[in-house]
Amino acid sequence: MSSDDELTPSEVTEFQKSKDNLLEDSRKVFEDVHADFCDIRKILLKFQEWKEKFPDSYCDAYISFCLPKLLNPLIRVQLINWNPLEVGLEEMPWFRAIEEFSDAKNVSESKRDDDTDQEVLPRVIEKTILPKITGIVRFVWDPLSTSQTKNLVQLCNNIFEKQDTFIILFKQDLLNMVVLRLKKSVEEDVFIPLYPKRHSLTANGISMPSTLVRQPPPPRVLYSALGPPTQEGHGPVGASPEEDHEDDQRAGAPLL
């Protein structure tokens, strides 16, 4: 596994300086806008009041379909400093505000039984969040990083378990990108030993466990969509030592 501290101090300093400048510029985007029109929680409160006072008018206006587009630019500004490999969605204030709005019950009397506000959060995730995560996977994610991979798996599991009805297309795009990054990592960064996977030989012929060779952890998030991976000549990943021993004997490989 690779550590997450492979940058030199000068590179870290330069990156942090560029990041700070970018964040400073992002704070100026809505500096001339009143808080009532750029604070997501306050905006949703206005719509909630409309829904409670005039529910039929609210439903006729298809607000639940308009809100994701309305909130999109505000959310994207909040996502500038968000790294899904480090911080979960649930920790962000705007996410909690939308989640509370989607789960809120209409306490007013209305002739309508349908409430499409519960679709606001899934649509925000579909249109705004998943494209961001896909970009992070493509350009930032290091499959050899244990911490990044665990955080990515947890994030994807949380999203897919709660919002799988609305994000089929974008979910597949994300999974395809994960597969491409894994393939690229195997081709460019990972050494696959030719000896039995329990052992590998160094340049001077000394035997060492193959667990010391850099290999990417298999993200569990792919298992549900692609099935467990298999290794040619060694059976399914996670096979018992006895099965590996029998495979090695059949292949004529030296038993170290």
Uncertain segments of ≥5 residues (pLDDT<50)? 107-111, 210-215, 225-256
Gap between N and C termini: 24 Å
Order of helices and strands: HHHHHHHHEEHEEH
Largest sheet: 2 strands, antiparallel
Mean pLDDT: 75
Number of domains: 2
Number of helices: 10
What shape does the CA trace take?
Answer: flat
Helical/strand content category: mainly alpha
Topology:
Blueprint: H1 9-26, H2 40-53, H3 55-60, H4 63-78, H5 93-103, H6 120-139, H7 146-163, H8 168-188, E1 199-201, E2 207-209, H9 223-226, E3 230-231, E4 235-236, H10 241-251
Antiparallel strand pairs: 1-2, 3-4
Describe the structure in your own words.
By secondary structure, this protein is mainly alpha-helical. The protein has two domains: 29-189, no CATH class; 193-256, no CATH class. It is 54% helix and 4% strand. It is built from ten helices and four strands. The protein has helices at residues 9-26, 40-53, 55-60, 63-78, 93-103, 120-139, 146-163, 168-188, 223-226, 241-251; strands at residues 199-201, 207-209, 230-231, 235-236. Strands 1-2 form a two-stranded antiparallel sheet. It has a two-stranded antiparallel ribbon with strand order 3-4. β1 and β2 form a beta hairpin. α6 (120-139) runs parallel beside α8. The two termini are 24 Å apart. Mean pLDDT is 75; it is low at 107-111, 210-215 and 225-256.
